[in-house]
Description:
The complex is a heterodimer of chains A (155) and B (523). With 155 residues, chain A is α+β, with helices and mostly antiparallel strands. Chain A has helices at residues 3-8, 17-26, 35-44, 49-58, 78-82, 85-96, 138-154, and strands spanning 70-75, 109-114, 126-128, 131-133. Chain A folds into two domains: 3-58; 70-154, Glutaredoxin, CATH 3.40.30. Helices cover 45% and strands 12% of the residues of chain A. In chain A, strands 2-1-3-4 form a four-stranded mixed β-sheet, with helices on one face. In chain A, 44% of the residues are buried. Chain B starts with 5 loop residues before the first strand and ends in a 6-residue tail after the last helix. The longest helix of chain B is centred in the last third of the chain and has 18 residues, at 481-498. In chain B, helix 6 crosses helix 13 (323-335). Helices cover 41% and strands 13% of the residues of chain B. Chain B has four domains: 6-94, 3-Layer(aba) Sandwich (Glutaredoxin), CATH 3.40.30; 130-339, NADH-ubiquinone oxidoreductase 51kDa subunit (Rossmann fold, 3-Layer(aba) Sandwich), CATH 3.40.50.11540; 344-434, Ubiquitin-like (UB roll), CATH 3.10.20; 439-522, de novo design (two linked rop proteins). In chain B, a hairpin with a 6-residue loop joins strand 11 (391-396) and strand 12 (403-404). The model of chain B has no long low-confidence stretch (mean pLDDT 92). Chains A and B meet through helix 2, helix 4, helix 5 and strand 4 of A and helix 1, strand 9, strand 13 and helix 17 of B.
Amino acid sequence: xxxxxxxxxxxxxxxxxxxxxxxxxxxxxxxxxxxxxxxxxxxxxxxxxxxxxxxxxxxxxxxxxxxxxxxxxxxxxxxxxxxxxxxxxxxxxxxxxxxxxxxxxxxxxxxxxxxxxxxxxxxxxxxxxxxxxxxxxxxxxxxxxxxxxxxxxxx
Amino acid sequence: xxxxxxxxxxxxxxxxxxxxxxxxxxxxxxxxxxxxxxxxxxxxxxxxxxxxxxxxxxxxxxxxxxxxxxxxxxxxxxxxxxxxxxxxxxxxxxxxxxxxxxxxxxxxxxxxxxxxxxxxxxxxxxxxxxxxxxxxxxxxxxxxxxxxxxxxxxxxxxxxxxxxxxxxxxxxxxxxxxxxxxxxxxxxxxxxxxxxxxxxxxxxxxxxxxxxxxxxxxxxxxxxxxxxxxxxxxxxxxxxxxxxxxxxxxxxxxxxxxxxxxxxxxxxxxxxxxxxxxxxxxxxxxxxxxxxxxxxxxxxxxxxxxxxxxxxxxxxxxxxxxxxxxxxxxxxxxxxxxxxxxxxxxxxxxxxxxxxxxxxxxxxxxxxxxxxxxxxxxxxxxxxxxxxxxxxxxxxxxxxxxxxxxxxxxxxxxxxxxxxxxxxxxxxxxxxxxxxxxxxxxxxxxxxxxxxxxxxxxxxxxxxxxxxxxxxxxxxxxxxxxxxxxxxxxxxxxxxxxxxxxxxxxxxxxxxxxxxxxxxxxx
Lengths: 155, 523
Ligand SMILES: Cc1cc2nc3c(=O)[nH]c(=O)nc-3n(C[C@H](O)[C@H](O)[C@H](O)COP(=O)(O)O)c2cc1C
Ligand code: FES
């Protein structure tokens, strides 16, 4: 979607900046914030590019690098750690053949870590585009990845 | 005789979505139709049911019979036996909590069974239906204000008398907080609901947001009326997708019923609510960082004082309250402060919503009176340690709290009693750690969390968290740990005294308590 159109949904009060950034990122192929778009947003909200970059870089949900269609975020906080969060990360690396913060060649998956996702009673936990998956084990992880691979092919 | 309509509530939340609840619901509906039961059975959605379920779960009213871990082939059994013949299907019901309690030597009656003030609607009503909230007594507190002509001061008095203390972690008296803001004279004031829930081991606010969003809106309206604010914000962490959707809908529906907007129920009082999404930063749960974030900035905490009560959002007087705190407001206004004192302890009345996580048989969320002991929670409601290993440690109140050993099990859980033991009740997270866990590794993981989440604005916290993480990795089983440990302890002292916000200050709790209570692992 066109960035100018997205920006127009918000009044140019700075209070709306983070909401607009979410909106732009969600509607950009590659789930990220392009510098060109950030320039437009900076103009729209009457701020400098470096200031807007400062905001973008502060928040872990925003990215300035192109990412996959599905963003997998594995929780690494203590309750998930106790339940084997590091193994989950290792299995995903193997399964996807990528390292942390990388994207698969087919541009389908990006692997990230995150702090607590607020689903600790289901630990270990990960999210795929903000859908939470808990009680992860080898079997379940495989099925989830398979599910998203098929969803992609189905479209 | 008119046949009683049976109401089936199906829990739709993240954990049931992955189990395929959408498909389950679809087939359930088809079967109801095929059996021509549409007139006598109503199927609707609700939030999660809490500590006692796993997989796809439903509740059937009247009776409130809970079925859990359901598969599609169970639907026929439920329809044929429960709905048509009125006989509950025993084998699909989860083991009742009372049995778990008696197994561990508690008298279920005495052991203060689960008590619901905050969660009274969760799992019982459809959170997407304002009508169901109203039928269950919702918005009665707002109506009471309109009909009984309660003045803002009366509201503040009730909340003060109730003794309600903030559930976001610090336990600050809510009535007093409101009074401070009420006394400020300003053209604008704000109410902010802190739904940033980022403290590791805590998911109770999500349960409330997903299961009973109108309760929060009602609490905010009352807070606004009491302090003279006309605008409220719900700040929800960006990761809480379902919470955001449900609260957006709840706000919309409240406007339609004129419970938000101009001249609410003819009181002349105007109140608007807007939702703001966070974007992933633990520190944004700190109230002044949260305010910066709403203003569209980096979430760097401000120097306090001034406190938000005087200078908050846009430098105007602002009340920031946690989700659970706000969920207590309507019940207190309706039932009175005396009623509230019938729960919990003298200085900490009411209940607390605990999140049970870690190496425990039944992880989940449970609401219990303040003053309950860890023994009751862990061995009673939580069913004890997983795989019957031994209990080693409990990390209480989130990662920023202290880590205790077994000797702590009988300390009553309320803000003051825990503080006296050198810990924090915090967000009410109870993380159970069994004796397979190496405490050095655990501490390393805790420190990794803080290193990652330090906002970097002030030097003691930015450098301190990184340095602590480096140091913990140098600890080994046969080295000279004493020097490293004393360096680490000293560093947390410095951070306690000089960090700008409680994030850096709080490292003293996990670090020192682990060395103190589990020192033998570092010899
Ligand atoms: C690092 C940090 C994170 C915090 N995170 C939260 C949070 O996620 N939710 C919350 O309600 N309070 C959080 N707090 C506490 C808030 O600053 C504030 O005390 C609370 O929202 C006040 O509400 P209450 O009086 O209803 O407890 C946090 C504090 C700190 C220092
Ligand atoms: S610690 Fe992983 S979801 Fe909370």
